[in-house]
From TrEMBL:
SUPFAM superfamilies: Nucleic acid-binding proteins. The gene is recO. Residues 6-71 form the DNA replication/recombination mediator RecO N-terminal domain. GO terms for cellular component: bacterial nucleoid. Keywords: DNA damage, DNA recombination, DNA repair. The keyword Lipid metabolism does not apply. The lineage of its organism: Bacteria, Pseudomonadati, Pseudomonadota, Gammaproteobacteria, Oceanospirillales. Belongs to the RecO family. InterPro entries: DNA_rep/recomb_RecO_N (IPR022572), NA-bd_OB-fold (IPR012340), RecO (IPR003717), RecO_C (IPR042242). This is DNA repair protein RecO. It comes from the Bacteria. Involved in DNA repair and RecF pathway recombination. One of its GO terms (biological process) is DNA recombination.
Amino acid sequence: MQPQPTYLLHRRPYRETSALVDLISAEYGRVRAVARGVMRPGSKARHRLQPFSPLHLTWTGNGELKTLRLIESGGPGAMLAGEGLLCGFYANELLTRCLPLELPAQRVFIFYASLLEALPVPSRRAAVLRRFEITLLESLDADPVFLTETDTPLDASTRYVYQAHWRRFRPAHAEEPGLDGRALLWLARDDWEAPGLAGVARSLTRAALAPLLGDRPLRSRELMQDLLLRRRQRQT
């Protein structure tokens, strides 16, 4: 195996001196592996095997659980802090929870690398996160189809509710808030950065991801809510 461009998604202790890691690679998608000996004091591989840093890795094994062999740095990592860091943890948690092992996901890998470049810039975070979520949904054949349940075009003057099991929209009832049809038509044109679309885009991707995530809440989302709450409390 040639060294693979890879990012670490999650790492947890395994036995006394090893770690169990989830990775995202350009060619192999999400990979789970044992990194033997990386928890030993003074291990150089331990310092290289960090989230948000490009890596060059090789591994062996025929089953779902691989064994890492080569662990090399691929360059400097993204400088994330505060909300940007939590957004990075959110992306990692999404990939770990939603992406099946060894499903080829080259576009997801490319968008993930672009996401890490954008997260240090607050003004770019919302749009790039939504594009990343949509790319992940596309790789799983779970992205929204911008049509009604009867496969008719959306109407700009109507509010809609997204039906994740159909991947389509139905008109909202009078008591439902719904999603603005005009905004959905902008998103259908792949314009995720148009002014005023952030709330609609976030609501849509959250609804589309919900069946994939199940009932267990995202830890990164809880941490973000705690951060925003503390920030509001300091301002009052």
